[in-house]
Amino acid sequence: MDYRFADRVKMFKSSAIREISEIIAKGNDVISFAGGFPYEPYFPQAELEQAFDKVFASGKSSLQYGMTSGFMPLREKISERVKAKGIQAAPVEVLLTTGSQQSIDLFSRIMLSPGDVVLTENPTFLAAVQAFESYEAKVIGVQSDKDGMDPEDLAKKLKEYKPKFIYVVPTFSNPEGKVWSNERRVALLKLAEEHNTLILEDDPYGELQFNAEETYTPIAAMDTEKKYVIYTSSFSKTVVPSLRVGWVTGPQPIMKVLTQIKEAADLMSSPLNQQALYHLLNDFDLDGHIRMLCQQYHQHMLVMQDYLKKLDSCKWVEPKGGMFIWLEVDENIHATELLTKAVPHGVAFIPGAPFYVDSPRQNTMRLNFTNSNPERIKLGMERLTEAFQQAMK
Ligand code: PMP
Asked: Which of 234, 238, 244, 270 to mutate to test the pocket of ligand 1 (most atoms within 8 A of CB)?
């Protein structure tokens, strides 16, 4: 049988992450610093159960089809929450999605024709690149440092490639765990305006901030005329990922087309989950819960970092939030080879190379500190130290 797949399927690469997962799966009792998973014991399980009980007690309408744009009372709650970050989004301008991954996919679907260009940081979030490439777009990396994209290189590439949009994760990024300076945020928006180009701001980690004193303004909040920035976030990191509730907001003409394509994609995201989340937000102190997560994850990160300080020739920028430490190791260490040594020691991580859109650096790796408690992190880091020592011999 000749399976006549669409042209876009040619863009699918075998996922390096899948290959890595296979290496990891071969190990026994592996402490994983690999996935971007939250820590399950912190999940508000009892409160979610109560929220679902309330939904079921309210009758059968929650089991019915709902509106494509989502459950209005939840959109109202999200509108209030983003307002606190300086983002003006009326409830009708908030589209509920099946996680921010779907926001990225839907936005790509309405913007990208084959051959169109998307500019990203390099490295960047792998699954976003997969979404862009699935619409046959070309993804071009912009040079960046610890403060964000280099405005000079960005200006050059805006002129050269005339991209459809610029994709950024400016607050506690994946994979680098970094946060952009205010100046770089302003510079990005100014350049986007000058080149009449949209920005897709992906902000799933922004609320996981360890030091409450600093403030990071979302680029969407700087776009006061609401012309250039499409902003997406979700409850995956602050409540639980399995609810699959995310949202997207942006310029009104974009929202109109996004809602049309959302209908074509899946009619709507789960009304049941949206209604349960609405009750959770009403009855539960989510902000208090997020403060607890920030405090705890900060401790997890510090425990991991203490071990890194003892390793030779490792460089990283201490994360101020989020879920990851991005590590640059000795030039002579190939992170995928290190992983094959680490797994028999009972510890895993993700090599950095797959996150690059070009010029992958083999001596980089991403360590997640949220999926294990500090005790397990200590044990995992002892194992990783042994693997390092073996690799350096
Ligand atoms: N964007 C980034 C940067 C992410 O790291 C993730 C998940 N790890 C997502 C989007 C997707 O998250 P979700 O669909 O669960 O909201």
From this structure: 234
pLDDT category at 247 given cuts 50, 70, 90 is: very high
Distance 255 CA to ligand 1 centre (A): 20
Evaluate: CB of 174 within 6 angstroms of ligand 1.
Answer: yes
- CB of 202 sitting under 6 A from ligand 1: yes
From 184, 198, 15, 175, select the one nearest 117 (Cα to Cα): 198
Q: Report the separation in Å between the CA atom of 308 and the middle of ligand 1, taken as the mean of its atom positions.
A: 26
Name the residue type at position 70: G
Q: Which one, of 343, 350, 354, 353, lies nearest residue 380 by Cα?
A: 343
374 ligand 1 Cβ < 6 A: no
Give residue 174 CA to ligand 1 midpoint distance, Å. Answer: 9
SS3 72: helix
pTM above 0.90, yes or no: yes
14 has pLDDT over 70: no
Could you give all domains of the chain from N- to C-terminal order, each with its CATH number?
A: 8-44+287-392 (3.90.1150.10), 46-283 (3.40.640.10)
Stretch (H or E) spanning 266: helix 252-266
Residue 246: per-residue pLDDT: 98
| Tens of pLDDT, residues 84-133 | 999 999 999 999 999 999 999 999 999 999 999 999 999 999 999 999 99
Residue among 369, 182, 241 nearest 294 (CA): 369
